[in-house]
């Protein structure tokens, strides 16, 4: 019985740590992708409207 409780506690702690790490990594990746998209859009607007 005690082994099961320790196992469940370990799983809950591992899940919480995974969620925290995933939020930090995903937030950073999301910002990077968003900034990259904005830069690509600005380059596209520049070349389509000002170079053409």
Summarize the structure.
The chain has 52 residues and is mainly α. The chain is built from one helix and no strands.
Features:
52 residues; mainly alpha; 1 helix; 94% helix
Summarize the structure in words:
The protein has 52 residues and is mainly α. It contains 1 helix and no strands. The protein is rod-shaped. 0% of the residues are buried. The model has no long low-confidence stretch (mean pLDDT 84).
**How far is it from the N-terminal to the C-terminal residue, by CA?**
74 Å
Radius of gyration: 22 Å
Q: How would the global form be characterised? A: rod-shaped
The helix-strand sequence is: H
- Structural class, by secondary structure, is mainly alpha
Poorly predicted spans: none
Oligomeric nature of the chains: single chain
Total number of helices: 1
Mean pLDDT: 84
Helix content: over 70%
- Percentage beta strand: under 5%
Main β sheet profile: none
The total strand number stands at 0
List the helices and strands and how they pair.
Layout (H helix, E strand, L loop, with lengths): L1 H49 L2
């Amino acid at each position: 019985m005690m082994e099961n409780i320790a196992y469940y506690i370990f799983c809950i702690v591992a899940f919480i740590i995974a969620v925290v790490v995933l939020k930090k990594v995903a937030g950073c990746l999301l910002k990077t992708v968003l900034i990259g998209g904005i830069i690509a859009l600005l380059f596209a607007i520049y070349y389509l409207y000002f170079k053409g």
